[in-house]
Amino acid sequence: MKIKEIRDAGVKLGFREIQTINVNSHLNGTRGKATLLPDGWELTESGREYLLGKGCLKSVTALTPLLRKVEQYVTGITLKETKEFINESIECANRQLYRAAVVLSWIGAVSILHHYVLKNYLTEFNKEAIEKKLIKKPIKNQDGLTKIGENDFLQVIQAI
User: Taking the model in full, what pTM does it have?
Assistant: First the structure.
């Protein structure tokens, strides 16, 4: 990266003091964590490991391309709570907290399904759920859907 790009990135991350620091001098003193190439500064492997350990750098894994695609889809989600669950799930995956990422993404997915059923198939859902004896009276809102177990909910939407 060129010095200007480094400064811009620092400011973007809230490190305004970078504008007054001699970046070249600082990077030269990192004991091999960064190296100056013809196109600018680049982190070395030990530099990446150091920043990963400090939580300053996201790790690149096999999931990284998938996470970038999910981030693009999130912009189209209009439900605030669902969007928050998905964004938090992405952040957990970026930090290699995979169990938390799976749980939060599942909650987000079920929320999307609930909303879709409420908006498009509530009559059919109620008919099927009553026939299966899962509910006694029709559901009217999201709260009603959350009272049905996830397995039962999925069985009903599969049937309609």
Answer: 0.59
